Amino acid sequence: MALPLTVVDAFTDRPFSGNPAAVCLLESERPESWLHDVAREMNLSETAYLHAEGDGYRLRWFTPTMEIDLCGHATLAATHVLWEKGLLDPGRQARFFTRSGLLTALRKGEWIELDFPAEPAMPVESSIALEEILGVPAYLAGKNRMDYLVEVADEDSVYGLQPDFEALARLDCRGVIVTSRSVSGEYDFVSRFFAPRAGIPEDPVTGSAHCCLGPYWGKKLGKRVMTGYQASARGGIVRVELDGDRVKLSGKAVTIWRGEMADSCER
Predict the structure, then answer these.
(1) What number of helices (H) and strands (E) belong to the chain?
(2) Does residue 67 belong to any structural domain of this protein?
(3) Residue 88 sits in the same domain as residue 195
(4) Residue 147: CB partners within 8 Å, gap ≥ 6?
(5) Same structural domain for residues 239 and 255?
(6) Cβ pair 179, 213 in contact under 8 A
(7) Is 119 annotated as catalytic?
(8) How far apart are CA 58 and CA 133, in angstroms?
(9) pLDDT tens track, the chain, 267 positions
(10) Which residues pair with 260 in a beta bridge?
(11) Which domain does 18 fall in, by range?
């Protein structure tokens, strides 16, 4: 029986913007090699695999090169697919068992709200090397278990950033979050995310990065509820609400295509 595959643009309400994720619904767990092969074939920043387990779903995320510990946009996409296919009542909480523990999602009108762990950056020594890699003056705000967080002077610095991707890939982290305060009035902060080591030179919109950005800007701005804009070429909006050691991330999603994986690909 062919497996259904859906591609969803997450953290956007417009097709061909936000961050695309492939969502693959399984009847049971598949071999690790197969999961890697399909993710490479899809060649999107993430492919999400999920199958029913207990009172929720087992959820795993793969880039074209590796499995990762936490992914916001592919979780949002998976939730969207479950509701769209009628596999989950829109008024019911979606529950996912992941490498980062239990994650949940709720529908709030046109928005999907994800309940994720806060991932604040811990102070680390300033790095001149990061400034050289990014090509702009930068303040190294810190690092969490996944990424470096770097603040730059202004929005123009974020939008105009042209980092050295080969040097970025050699850093001891999943990726680098670059951010600044926004003065537009529409957003509280802007950011970009680079993860060439994970096979993603620049991720269009990164929910998990906002688990770090939320606590950082919440403290600096004195706010609990904020709106972030990820200023990639595709762009996307993430609403952030701080809730103790959790972060509520909200976004919209749009289905781009639905299909099936050929029987010959199943092994």
Answers:
(1) 6, 17
(2) yes
(3) no
(4) 121, 173, 174, 175, 176, 177, 193, 195, 209, 212
(5) no
(6) yes
(7) no
(8) 37
(9) 678 999 999 999 999 999 999 999 999 999 999 999 999 999 999 999 999 999 999 999 999 999 999 999 999 999 999 999 999 998 899 999 999 999 999 999 999 999 999 999 998 876 778 889 999 998 888 999 999 999 999 999 999 999 999 999 999 899 999 999 999 889 999 999 999 999 999 999 999 999 999 999 999 999 999 999 999 999 999 999 999 999 999 999 999 999 998 866 766
(10) 4
(11) 3-115+251-262
Determine the Cα–Cα distance for residues 183 and 185; give it in Å rounded to an integer: 6
- The answer to whether residue 120 is domain-embedded is no
Dist CA 72 CA 179 (whole Å): 18
Q: Provide long-range contacts, Cβ within 8 A and 24+ apart, for 31-36.
A: 31/267, 34/267, 35/60, 35/62, 35/67, 36/62, 36/67
Nearest to 267 by CA among 19, 38, 17, 113: 38
**CB-neighbour burial class of residue 123 (10 A; exposed 0-12, middle 13-18, buried 19+):** exposed
Do 73 and 136 belong to one domain?
no
Instruction: Flag whether 135 is in a domain.
Output: yes
What six digits make up the tokens of 141?
A: 């705000």
Beta strands in 72-212 (DSSP E): 94-98, 101-108, 111-117, 138-143, 147-152, 175-181, 189-195, 200-203
Of these residues, 27, 32, 41, 46, which one is catalytic? Answer: 46
Q: Are both 182 and 258 inside the same structural domain?
A: no
Considering only CA atoms, give the Rg of the chain.
18
Note whether 16 and 108 are same-domain residues: yes
CATH of the domain at 173: 3.10.310.10
The answer as to whether 267 is a domain residue is: no
CA distance 225 to 48: 28
Question: For the whole prediction, is pTM greater than 0.85?
Answer: yes
The type of residue at 35 is L
